Amino acid sequence: MTSLSLEGKSILLVISGGIAAYKALDLVRLLKKAGAELRCILTAGGAQFITPLAVSALSGTETYTDLWSLKDETEMGHIRLSREADLIVVAPASANMMAKMAHGLADDLATTTILASDKPVMIAPAMNPIMWQNPATQDNLAILEQRGFLRIGPDRGEMACGEHGEGRMAEPAEIFGAIAATLLREQPLRGRKALVTSGPTYEPLDPVRFIGNRSSGKQGHAIACALRDAGAEVTLVSGPVALPDPPGMNVIHVETAIAMLNACQDSLPADIAVCAAAVSDWSATAIMKQKIKKRQNAMPPALSLKENPDILAMLARPSPRRPSLVIGFAAETDDLIAKAQEKLARKGCDFLLANQVGPTENGDEKVFGQDENHVYLVARDGHQDWGHAPKDMIARKLCREIAKRMEENHDQQRQRA
Ligand code: C5P
C-alpha cells in the first residue's frame, strides 16, 4: 500500500476530537512515508486525545491549532492552509465536526479553513454507533455528501466505549488508500468544458397539462458526473427529473425544448456536448391560458402541434462555436443500428450511443427509469456493441471514448500546424 507515491501532492489533515485521533497518527506516518506534503490542524477536541507535539514529530512540520495565533496567521493563515492543499482530510471527523461543516460554522481554525476552501474534502467519521445513527448526524452527512464531500467509513466493530456497531473510524491504511485513489485519479478531461443535456422536456398545453415522456435523466446525469470526475468543467442542462442536482457542476433547470436550447447556447463555447435529453419533438402551437375544459357530448379537442428545434443538430452544425465533439443518443424500438446510422448523418454529430427502448416480452420497460442500459456506439466507420451495463459504467466508458477522441483531435491539429 505505502509503495504508492504521493510526491508533489499536498494534503491538509484535520484531526478532530475522538479517541480515534490516536489512529490519525498512523495516517500521518503513512502519508509522510508516501512523500506527501502534509500540514496538520489539531482541533481543541483532538488535542484532548493526542498532543500537537506527537503530530509534529511524525509530520515533520508545525501543527496548527489556533485561529487567533498571530504567528500562524502571518506565516500560514487559514486561507493559505486551505488553498495550498490538493485535498483536505478530516480524520477522525467527529459528530460535532460534521455538524459544524454541514452548517457552515467557522468558530475555530479547522472549521474556518474548511469553510474558506474550494478544495475537495474527505471525511473519515468516527463516533459512537448511536450518535452515528442519530437522524441529526445522518441529515448532516446527507448535506455534506450532497455538496460533494468524500467519505471513507465508518466501519462496524467494537468501539472504544465498549459498544458494538457502526461508527469505528476506517483503518489508517484504508484512509490512505482512499486519499491515494482520489489524488492519483487520472483526469484526462481537465481543462475541458462539457455541456450535457439530460431528462425529458415538458411542453405545456395549458396551465396544468403538458406533453412529456418517460426519461428519468439517470443516464444523462451519470454522464455529467463521469465527465466531472474526469476533470471537465460541466454544465448540466436538465429537464424535470426526480434526481438531486449532482455536486461539482453548474446545473441549469429547464422545462421546454426552447428553454433547453437557449440554456445550451448560453453555455457555449464548450469542447464537448453530449445530448442525452429526450427532447419532445413537438410542442403546442398555442398554450391555452386557461385549463382546456371537457365539454359534454363534444368531440375531444384537437391538438395543434409544431416541431421543436433539434438541439443536437443545432449544436453539431458547422460553426466556429461548434464543440469539437458532439455526441447524441438514438433511442429506437426497432432496426436500431440502421436507424442510428441514418440519424448520425442527418444530425451531423460525431457519434451516437444507440439503445433499444420499449417494453420487453414481459411488458417491463427496458431503459427509461432503469439503472441499466444496453448501448451501441454508432460512428460513421461502423458500430461497437458496448453490451448490457449499469448506466454509470456506460457513462465512464463514454468518458474514456471522449478522452481518446479529444486526444486524437489534438494530435491531428498538432500535425496540421
Ligand atoms: O431525433 P431523435 O429525438 O431520435 O434524436 C435523439 C437525439 O437527438 C438525442 O441525442 C436527443 O438528445 C437529441 N435531440 C435534441 N433535440 C431535439 C430532439 C432530439 O437534442 N429536439
Describe it for me?
The chain is an alpha/beta fold. The chain has two domains: 10-183, Flavin prenyltransferase-like (Rossmann fold, 3-Layer(aba) Sandwich), CATH 3.40.50; 193-416, Rossmann fold. Helix content is 35%, strand content 24%. The chain has 14 helices and 20 strands. The protein has helices spanning 21-33, 52-59, 70-76, 78-83, 95-103, 109-115, 129-133, 135-146, 172-183, 218-229, 257-266, 311-316, 336-347, 391-416; strands spanning 10-15, 37-42, 63-64, 87-93, 121-125, 150-151, 155-158, 164-168, 193-198, 203-204, 210-211, 233-238, 250-253, 272-275, 282-284, 305-307, 325-332, 351-356, 372-379, 382-390. Strands 13-12-9-14-17-18-19-20 form an eight-stranded mixed sheet, with helices on both faces. It has a six-stranded parallel sheet with strand order 3-2-1-4-5-6, with helices on both faces. Helix 1 packs across helix 9 (172-183), helix 5 packs across helix 8 and helix 10 (218-229) packs across helix 14 (391-416). The radius of gyration is 26 Å and the shape is elongated. The two termini are 44 Å apart. The mean pLDDT is 92. The structure holds cytidine-5'-monophosphate. Cytidine-5'-monophosphate binds next to helix 12 and strand 17.
Write the layout of secondary structure elements.
Blueprint: E1 10-15, H1 21-33, E2 37-42, H2 52-59, E3 63-64, H3 70-76, H4 78-83, E4 87-93, H5 95-103, H6 109-115, E5 121-125, H7 129-133, H8 135-146, E6 150-151, E7 155-158, E8 164-168, H9 172-183, E9 193-198, E10 203-204, E11 210-211, H10 218-229, E12 233-238, E13 250-253, H11 257-266, E14 272-275, E15 282-284, E16 305-307, H12 311-316, E17 325-332, H13 336-347, E18 351-356, E19 372-379, E20 382-390, H14 391-416
Helix pairs in contact: 1-2, 1-9, 5-8, 10-14
The protein binds cytidine-5'-monophosphate.
